[in-house]
Here is the input.
Amino acid sequence: MNRSNRSNPLQINQVHLEFTEKSASAWGGMAAIIGKYLERISFREWVLRSIPVSETSPNAKGVYEKVLAQFLTVLIGGDRFSHLSWWGHGVEVFYETFGVKWLPQSASVVTRFWNKISSQCLCEQFSASARAFAASVISWEGIESDNLNLDSSVITRYGKQEGAKKGYNPKKKGRPSHHPLLAFMGRGYVVNLWNRSGDTWSANGAVDFYNQSIASLPDNFNPENTNVKQLQKRLKLCNILNEHLDTYEIFGDFDFISDKIKRLNNIYKPRKNYDRAI
Here is the structure.
């Protein structure tokens, strides 16, 4: 149907059909809300200031556009770079809302961009900037106290990603995976994340991760409680407890953990006249 020839609304039985010159998209509501939120927290300024990637090619499209594309993909539920095409319909709405002239529609554009962060120094620089940005958002929200949750997760990999190794994987046994550590607040904000190889023990590096997570929080923030899920389960054998005294000293202030450690210490105390098999 050629709408240019239709100056009056079209009616079929009791249904009236009208056309609009405005761009229509299924993501209109999300774009309006998220666009305003990113503007309030100065997300574009942080990306341009903190992402350790510089583009010098005259054909470069911009750093912010590529980061925004991946952010939108994750926001709508995508968990692969190929899901970038999910929000491609009605992309003009994103142009207007986020103030950009272009957004990548190919996954290879985003993967090539992130591969430019290829050194440990750049990774640590970006991680420190991300933690500082999370702390500024928490302060902007006016959050002064909340639960701090520490947990580990398993992310199954199907390719040959760096660090993807076989380890504990309850859903896809025998497949390579990553085993990250996460620190997140009860309100959902992630304040710290360490990505680790799939064959890493759950509590490996937990002490340093905890210290870094606490240091990343705003100065006026008071953790109401610390919930250590998978890490707590792994600290249950006497020989492990003896090798991780620093962990006991840090988490010993929390009664719900120190009591469990004391009970486990008594349960797994070696008995007399018992030869442990090696």
